[in-house]
Amino acid sequence: MRAEPCDIVVVGGGAFGAISALELTSRGHHVTILDRTPEPHPDASSTDISKMIRMDYGSDVFYHELAEASLDIWDQWNASWPRPLYHPEGFLVLSASSFEPGGFEYESERVLRERGYEPRRFDADALRATWPAWNADRYPEGYVSPRGGWAESGAVVARLLELGRDEGVHFVRGSFSGFVEDGSRVSGVRFRSPGGSTHTLSADRVVVAAGAWTPVLLPWLDDVLTPVAQPIVHYGVDNVIQWQHPTFPPFAADTAGSGWYGFPSLDDGRLKLGHHADGRAVDPDARGEVTAEHLELARTFLRDSLPELADAPVVGTRVCLYCDSFDGDLWIGEDPERSGLVVAAGGSGHGFKFTPIIGRLVADTVERRDNPWLHRFAWRALGQARREAARVQH
Ligand SMILES: Cc1cc2nc3c(=O)[nH]c(=O)nc-3n(C[C@H](O)[C@H](O)[C@H](O)COP(=O)(O)OP(=O)(O)OC[C@H]3O[C@@H](n4cnc5c(N)ncnc54)[C@H](O)[C@@H]3O)c2cc1C
Fold first, then answer.
1. What is the C-alpha R_g of the chain?
2. HSE (CB half, 13 Å, CA atoms) of 27?
């Protein structure tokens, strides 16, 4: 049964907010996105040149299936959008030791194989022969998954916002500063316009999808959601074709040990490396710069693993913010103490790939419909993980 149309304000126009607004509009609701800028905000986690799209989640079949459902929609988007923004170039997973049952690489490959995806396992000799840029002495085992690749994430958000605009989503430029409340019910938001004046927007429901800013805007969530800084480094490469599909797939290079993962070069010669580790908790508006220590770690990784890039010049850096939930799971639920307030955050460094599905999850939450995926992401107290999973990898 269709829910009664209502007025909804979505705070945040990153990937989670943009797709939520689009889905809610398609269900007949009147939706306004409030963000500090109408375009993808340059500081948003979604606004980046690339994000990994993969279904490799160790033995965690829940996320594997969520990625599987998302990938079907990535394919549909590719087929219907003016140009493909998801590049299905596979996902190369390298291990610095032999595969062990229980390990991320072993379990990911097993789940893929058992579910019919035909990952190709290889040893050092095959790595050397097939992807010669890699120092095969460092990686005795690995596999390549054919079902995955990378997406032009900033361009995807721009596209979703454009589609939203076409479908009737309203955009308001301003910075959220609080809720309008009616007892324990949230009935709108207050915001500061770029000129500094304060305004309100009334709403039947408010969705806060403010990424790493969420625990700042909603401080009662700061024990379960944390903004965490992670470094990104762009290198300049000369022979672009050598560093692109099919000779150089997106990769995770023993990420649990080294922290490094990366992407093929863009046509302009930018090759991106990212570091996935515990990171450092930060104020999202004072995230700092990529440190000399991280640049040195990245250089050591290149020297050891991709020797032809040992002297590649750094052409850009970016500190990107994870919105880490305490258990690594997304956070999509209605606040039990503030009726009408829905939070869609907790991307925890791996949320972008699920963008195609997130709108449905958020819309079902807003409409208070049951959805089997939502159980794991629902409101929970610290220590009440639906699954006490360690943080997941890229
Ligand atoms: C370094 C890094 C690498 C990552 N790699 C991957 C990957 O390879 N694969 C993957 O699947 N995921 C990856 N992720 C995770 C992914 O980027 C996020 O899960 C996803 O982009 C989160 O989107 P979001 O919409 O929640 O947040 P954001 O994109 O950050 O959007 C939040 C929005 O809220 C707005 N906002 C903030 N404060 C206010 C306010 N006061 N008023 C109004 N608006 C406000 C911001 O301007 C912004 O537009 C990575 C993240 C990082 C940081």
1. 21
2. 26
pLDDT tops 50 at residue 391: no
Inter-CA distances, 231 with 50, 92, 293, Å: 14, 21, 11
pLDDT tens column, 306-322: 999 999 999 999 999 99
41 Cβ contact list (under 8 Å, min separation 6): 13, 14, 35, 47
For residues 170 and 168, give the distance between their C-alpha atoms in angstroms, rounded to a whole number. Answer: 6
Residues linked to residue 172 through DSSP beta bridges, in sequence order: 34
In tens, the pLDDT along 205-239 reads 999 999 999 999 999 999 999 999 999 999 999 99
The response to whether residue 213 sits with its C-beta less than 6 Å from ligand 1 reads yes
**What domains can be seen in the chain, in order of their start residue?**
7-46+154-224+327-377 (3.50.50.60), 87-150+226-325 (3.30.9.10)
Query: Does a cis peptide bond (omega within 30 degrees of 0) precede residue 246?
Result: yes
Give percent above pLDDT 90 in the chain. Answer: 92
Question: What is the Cα–Cα distance from 339 to 337, expressed in whole angstroms?
Answer: 6
Q: Which of 19-23, 53-57, 255-259, 338-342 is the least confident region?
A: 255-259
235 touches ligand 1 (CB under 6 Å): no
CA of 28 to the centre of ligand 1 (A): 26
DSSP string, 12-69: --SHHHHHHHHHHHHTT-EEEEEESSSSPPTTSTT-SS-EEEE--BTB-HHHHHHHHH
pTM (2 d.p.)? 0.96
Strands 30-35 and 86-87: unpaired
**If pLDDT is split at 50, 70 and 90, which confidence band does 279 have?**
confident
Ligand 1 close to Cβ of residue 319 (< 6 A)? no
Alpha carbon of 347 to ligand 1 centroid (Å): 7
Residues listed for the chain: 394
Rounded to the nearest angstrom, the distance between the alpha carbon of 351 and the centre of ligand 1 is 8
